[in-house]
Amino acid sequence: MRKRGLAVAGAAVGLTAVVAAGWGAQSYLGSSGSGARSSGPSGLAGPSRTASPDGAPTRSGAPSPNASRLRMVNGRAQPPTVRVPRSASGRYAVAKGTARPPAGARGTIVRYTVEMERGLPFDLTEFASNVHRVLNDPRSWGHGGTMRFVRVAQGPVSFRVALSSPALTDRLCAPLVTGGELSCRQGSRSVINARRWGTGVPWYKGDLAAYREYVINHEVGHALGHGHEQCPGPGRRAPAMVQQTKSLYGCRPNPWPYPSE
Question: What pTM, to 2 d.p., does this model score?
Answer without folding.
Answer: 0.78
